[in-house]
Design a protein that fits this description.
3 domains; alpha/beta; Rossmann fold; 18 helices; about 20% strand
Length: about 500
C-alpha cells in the first residue's frame, strides 16, 4: 500500500521518539490503522481495541504472525497481538509485563477508563501509543494522565481543506424531542431514559429523511427498537443492529444503491468502512464529542458520486446546550447562542464559526457568559481564582481591563496551552493580575465585581444600552450585567465596528 505524505510523516516522528507515552490524532477517514501498522517494530506489538470490528481490522495491514485475544480466541506468541480490552484485562496473568515493545491503543479517547489503566500499569512497553480521531471524552476526563504529549495532529478541518475528506453541508431539523428530564451517566445521556424520550420521534425522523436526505443515507438511532421503527417508515430502508447477520452483504447492497437507507443503533460508529454515504442523519442525541464525530465520520469518505456530505442534526429541547451538533466538529461551543437563534447555525461547515459569532453576539448571551465560564471550569476541575473571564465561541478566555484585553487560547486535547497545563497558565495570569493590575481589581476579581454588581443597574447604564438595543428590556438588569453589556459595546467601538 502506498502511504500518504502525512502518514509517512507521522510514522517517521514515532520511529524517532524516546521511550514514553504519546498521543496521535488523525481524523476519521485519514487512515490511522494503516499508519500505526507501518510503525517500525523492535519487538512484539499489542493493539488494544474495545469493539469486535476494531480487533480484527488491523490484520490485513500486517505481513507477520498475527494473534487475537478476544472471547474464544487466544494468542500464542505472535509478533502482533490484537486484543479487546474487555478480554485481555482478565487475562493479564497469561503475559509477562515486558512481553510487548509497543502497545498501540486504538480509539485512545477511551484510554482514561479504569480497564485501560489497569492494562497500562501491568505492561512495561518502550512505547505506549494512542491513536484517535476524537481525543475528547464526554465525561470531561482528559488524557494527560495517560499520554505525555501530542506528537502528531491532523484534524477534520485539515483533512477537508487538503482534499482527503468530504466537505460537509450542515442542517438542523427540530423533531420535537424533550431531553430536559434525561439524566447523564458517564458523561452522556442515560440510554434507557434516552430511548424513552425518543420513542415518539420515528415519524419526524422519517419526514426529515423525505425532505432533506440525498442519496445513500445512514441514520443513527438510539436503540434497536428505535432503529426498527424508523426503518418501517422509510421505503426500502434496512435496520442494522448488533444481531444483524451478513452486514458486509448489506453494506455492499447499500453501496450499490440497492438499499437507499441504513438505520443503525451503535453499529457503524467506529471502525466500519462504508464506501458511499451521501447523507448522515444524527437521530441519536449525544453529549460525547467523540461519539458524535465517529457517527459523522462514516460519511467523510470521498466518492466520485458525492459532492459533499449532507449532515442532518435532529434536535429538540434539552436542559443544557451540551448536545453535540455540527459546530462540535470544529470544537466550537454554541452555549452562548440563544435557543431561538440556533436554527441559523447551518450551512457549509466552515461557514458556521462566523454564523455562531453573529448569532451569539446578543446582550442576553453576554449576561450568561459568567454562568458558561463557571460551568466549563467545574467540568474541567479548574480553579479560575475568581477571574472575571469571558469565554469566546472558539474556546478562548478573555478578560477586559478597560482599554486592555488579556486572552488565554483554547486548550488542546491534553488540557495544555502551548505545551503548558491550562491550570498553570491560569495561575500565571492570576499572579500577573495580583502583581500588576491591583488598580483595576474591581474589573477582574469576581468577588469585587459581585460586591458592587448585584445592585440594580444605574439609569445611565440603562440609557446607553437602550440607545444600542431599542427592543431590549433592561429594567431588571444588575450593575454587573449592565457592565458586561457595556464592556462589549465599548469593545466594538474600540475595534471600529
Amino acid at each position: 500500500m502506498n502511504l500518504r505524505d502525512y502518514q509517512i510523516e507521522c510514522i517517521d516522528k514515532i520511529n524517532n521518539l524516546p521511550p514514553g507515552a504519546y498521543l496521535s490524532q488523525m481524523a476519521t477517514g485519514l487512515g490511522k490503522t494503516v499508519t500505526f501498522a507501518n510503525i517500525r517494530r523492535k519487538g512484539r506489538v499489542l493493539i488494544l481495541s474495545h469493539r469486535e470490528e476494531l480487533v480484527n481490522q488491523p490484520k490485513k495491514y500486517y505481513d507477520c504472525t498475527f494473534g487475537i485475544e478476544q472471547g474464544k480466541y487466544h494468542s500464542d506468541g505472535e509478533e502482533v497481538v490484537s486484543a479487546s480490552v474487555q478480554s485481555i484485562v482478565r487475562r493479564l496473568e497469561h503475559f509477562k509485563p515486558d512481553d510487548f515493545d509497543i502497545i498501540i491503543c486504538d480509539e485512545a479517547h477511551h484510554a482514561a477508563a479504569k480497564s485501560y489503566k489497569k492494562i497500562f500499569s501491568y505492561f512495561k512497553p518502550r512505547l505506549l501509543l494512542g491513536f484517535t480521531a476524537t481525543p475528547n471524552r464526554a465525561d470531561g476526563a482528559r488524557l494527560n494522565d495517560v499520554f505525555s504529549k501530542i506528537v502528531f495532529k491532523r484534524d477534520l478541518k485539515w483533512g477537508i481543506k487538503n482534499g482527503y475528506l468530504s466537505d460537509i453541508f450542515c442542517r438542523r431539523v427540530d423533531i420535537g424531542y424533550d431531553l430536559s428530564g434525561v439524566h447523564t451517566r458517564m458523561g452522556d445521556y442515560a440510554p434507557g431514559e434516552l430511548d424513552e424520550a425518543m420513542k415518539d420521534t420515528s415519524d419526524a425522523i422519517a419526514e426529515a429523511y423525505r425532505k432533506y436526505a440525498k442519496g445513500a443515507t445512514l441514520i443513527f438511532a438510539v436503540s434497536v427498537n428505535h432503529a426498527q421503527e424508523i426503518a418501517k417508515r422509510i421505503p426500502g430502508a434496512v435496520a442494522v443492529t448488533g444481531e444483524t447477520e451478513n452486514r458486509s452483504r448489506i453494506i455492499q447492497d447499500f453501496t450499490d444503491r440497492k438499499i437507499p437507507c441504513l438505520v443503525n443503533c451503535m453499529v457503524f460508529t467506529e471502525g466500519t468502512d462504508i464506501p458511499l454515504v451521501e447523507t448522515v442523519i444524527i437521530a441519536r442525541p449525544t453529549k460525547s464529542d467523540s461519539l458524535y464525530a465517529q457517527m459523522v465520520g462514516r460519511g467523510l469518505r470521498l466518492h466520485p458520486e458525492k459532492e459533499k456530505l449532507n449532515l442532518i442534526d435532529c434536535v429538540g429541547i434539552t436542559d443544557s446546550s451540551s448536545l453535540c451538533t455540527a459546530p462540535s466538529l470544529l470544537g466550537i461551543d454554541i452555549s452562548a447562542v440563544p435557543a431561538r437563534e440556533r436554527k441559523k447555525v447551518q450551512g457549509d461547515l466552515f461557514e458556521l464559526p462566523d454564523k455562531i459569532v453573529k448569532a451569539s453576539d446578543t446582550p442576553m448571551s453576554w449576561i450568561r457568559n459568567t454562568e458558561i465560564v463557571d460551568l466549563w471550569a467545574k467540568e474541567q476541575s479548574y480553579n479560575l481564582h475568581n477571574i472575571n473571564f469571558f469565554k469566546m465561541p472558539d474556546g478562548r478566555l478573555t478578560l477586559s481591563l478597560g482599554e486592555k484585553i488579556l486572552s488565554i487560547p483554547c486548550q488542546d486535547e491534553l488540557g495544555n496551552v502551548d505545551g503548558r497545563p491550562m491550570q498553570e497558565v491560569i495561575d500565571d495570569l492570576y499572579s500577573e493580575l495580583t502583581s500588576n493590575y491591583q488598580d483595576c481589581r474591581s474589573l477582574w476579581d469576581m468577588n469585587a465585581v459581585k460586591r458592587w454588581g448585584n445592585n440594580p443597574a444605574t439609569d445611565r447604564q440603562k440609557t446607553i444600552i437602550r440607545r444600542k438595543f431599542k427592543d431590549f428590556d433592561c429594567s431588571e438588569l444588575t450593575k454587573m450585567q449592565a457592565s458586561q453589556i457595556l464592556n462589549r459595546i465599548f469593545s466594538e467601538k474600540r475595534a471600529g465596528k
